[in-house]
Amino acid sequence: MVALVGSVIILAGIVELLRRRQLAEKYSVLWLVVGILLLVFTAFPGLLTSLSAALGVAVPTNLMFFVGILFLVGVVLHLSWEVSRLENETRKLAEDLAILQLEVSQQKRENVAE
């Protein structure tokens, strides 16, 4: 019962982050699916046992941890890609800003010289 309440609280937290627009839309579906799966596996614990038996995994918890680790590795890989992309964009913006500042300072010197 405690796990079920915890799952509902986690799902409600995800929905609240979405409602407040604190979670980007591109991640919203992913986290909603995770929250719903967590709720389903908490409400029906036999489902995880059946799934692990069908996949040939001896202990259902091992399947849960394996899938969780794969999920987290995927999230970390995606976020690393996003950080790299944003670093490149930030570098380009800094270069563009430096060029604009140089042009403005040259324009000021030309106006003073006239």
Description:
The chain is an all-alpha fold. The chain has two domains: 1-43; 58-114. 89% of the residues lie in helices and 0% in strands. It contains four helices and no strands. It has helices at residues 2-19, 25-43, 45-55, 60-113. Helix 1 (2-19) packs antiparallel against helix 2 (25-43) and helix 2 packs across helix 3. The longest helix is centred in the C-terminal third of the chain and has 54 residues, at 60-113. It is elongated and about 85 Å long. It starts with a helix and ends with a helix. 1% of the residues are buried. The model has no long low-confidence stretch (mean pLDDT 90). This is DUF2304 domain-containing protein. It comes from Actinophytocola xanthii. The chain crosses the membrane at residues 29-57, 63-81. Residues 83-110 form a coiled coil. InterPro entries: DUF2304.
Quick synopsis:
The chain has 114 residues and is mostly helical. It contains four helices and no strands. The chain crosses the membrane at residues 29-57, 63-81.
SSE blueprint:
Layout: H1 2-19, H2 25-43, H3 45-55, H4 60-113
Helix pairs in contact: 1-2, 2-3, 3-4
How would you describe this structure in keywords?
0% strand, 114 residues, mainly alpha, elongated
What series of H and E elements makes up the topology? HHHH
Strand residue content: under 5%
Work out the oligomeric state of the chains in this entry: single chain
What number of structural domains do the residues give? 2
Number of strands: 0
Sheet having the most strands:
none
Q: Span between N and C termini?
A: 81 Å
